[in-house]
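ok so I'm stuck.
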Amino acid sequence: MNVSFRIPREMAPRSTAGPSACLFLLALVFAALAPQPAFARFNLAGDAPATLTRDAVTIEVARDGSFVEEEIREILIRNESGRQSAGTMGIVYNARVSKVEVLSAETVLDGKTFPVPPEAIEDKPIATNLPGFDEHARITVPYTGVQVGSRVRIRKKTTQREAAFPGHYSRAFFPGIDFACEHFDLTIRSKRPLRVAVNGPDDLFGVEHFMDGDVDTLRVKLRKPSYRQLVEEQRYSYMPVTRLPYVQVSTDDSLDVPAAPVVAAYEKILSGPLPPLFEEQAKAFAESGGPFPDRLDALTSSFLRRIRYFGDWRPRNGGYVPRALADIASSQYGDCKDMSTAVAAILRKSGVRADIAWINRNPIPPDPLPLATPDAYNHAIVRIVQDGSTYWVDPTNNVSFARGIPNDLAGRDALVLGAGKLRKEHVPFPPPDAGVSRGTGTYVFAPDGNAKITARLELLGQQAVWLTGVGRYAAPETVKFAILRGISEGRRVVSGTVGDFDMLSPVVRDLSIDVTIEVEGAAIRTTAGLAYRLEHNSLKSFAVIDPEKDQGDLYLGLPSITESVDRIAGSRLVGKNPAPCRVSSPWVDASWEARDDGDSLLVSSRVTLKKPLLTHSEIAGQAFADLQKGIRQCFGDYALVFEPRTER
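replied:
not stuck anymore, here's the structure
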């Protein structure tokens, strides 16, 4: 019985996931996990949806980190996708601290120019603004008469009146990532010294960096067209930052000095008095008993019932500072900064060491750029130390699991705000045995190849996250039917039942689910009799990667273990019993074997995903070639022909 998991980001148990996301989870939760092949090539520039034919950027940076930026852009629309994506420009900005002006916008087609009337350009507050946060606004520029072959042009000016971190400026440019880029001309004049990092394969950029009086001046020009986009057929292949063209600038070697006022503001809020709501939760936590992780889960699940999460990293006063604890408690909503600060304050009140940590929450662990920038972080969590153990807790998750590490936090650098200072730490990936999927099934085959299966599915540790609390987003019968469909692996379900299990708990606990199901066509019909499929989809994906052509790195998912034991009741093998087969590599270990227990034919397998990432350079190495060879020899398309014992 296939019990492996492939967990897309939409399936992650976050408070932002609605019912449709969780139904998508259930539809895929029993699909084969793991390495999705990186059928990745580089797109040709001519196949890009649009081409940036001109991008001229001039930036004047003041000593306090404020700046004025002017940009002139011209984009050639190459196909319908480009017409949709570039035919209307949207600009979102923080209206409290910045001003954006569209100086001109026009479409050029067949030698004719169609200006965008000023009255057609909308500049409106975003409707999701909530009290206590900065007001975001959105400018919409609807280009006139856009067709394939059109060129759309815009001149805009951005005035940033204050910096999130006083005195700090940083920015990164990636020409040729979204659209093909034929022209990129950047000039930055800064009253503060600039650190510069340039990653340009094949001498892509021309760079001049010099002092002009007391102004540090940087000029960068693109020397030849650039387009760095994968032809991606699988969703988990990606290009790491180290292999992308970029120009990064920063005024600081580290964020210690510019972030000091922000860190001090956090400490002031954390050390303030708790409002009654949070005082009540601190008291309940202090008086609770049992293992510390269980107490922590009880606190965060109780907190989330009272404080509603509505979105990540909403600026207040232009920056990274959360609201006051009293404001969070009275409104009973908050962003990640608010919720993490409140939970940390509750824990500190109870004598627990708890600090805020900034992190980058994305489906794939990002490669950090080399220079200091607050843009490296988009989420706030809590780092907790107790009895020698470290816990990384995200209060915005809609399930609590202090013993685990959330999928979208593991393997990332975190900037911890502790004792009034910043320090960088790394959130580890969990070991494989922290998440185990185990399936046992007894198959009774009919002569037509249908099978009645009695099975038990166990989801242990990290793997239990994906079905925890799912009943809060879908009806129980919908959940159960999705489980049956997953076990049937796409074949028709004749009938089936799924035993009751806790679908409502907000706390992750090991799950054990009993299933009975009749599946049509579960066996292969051959001239020698029925045959049991030996399907190892999670390993086939390794075998089809082409080291000579594929360009992307591959994110494999959190390390985990998948085990299965299938009993073909009252049957024995026809022909020679195959020897146990094993494959080992730095990324995955796998084995399967078939044996006769005197009553039935037993088929067991185990797959251990050891590493979460497979890089392009590793794909080109000998160890990966050996893995592919072993998989093809050991885990190809096999079937075991069997017969009833009563026939001999």
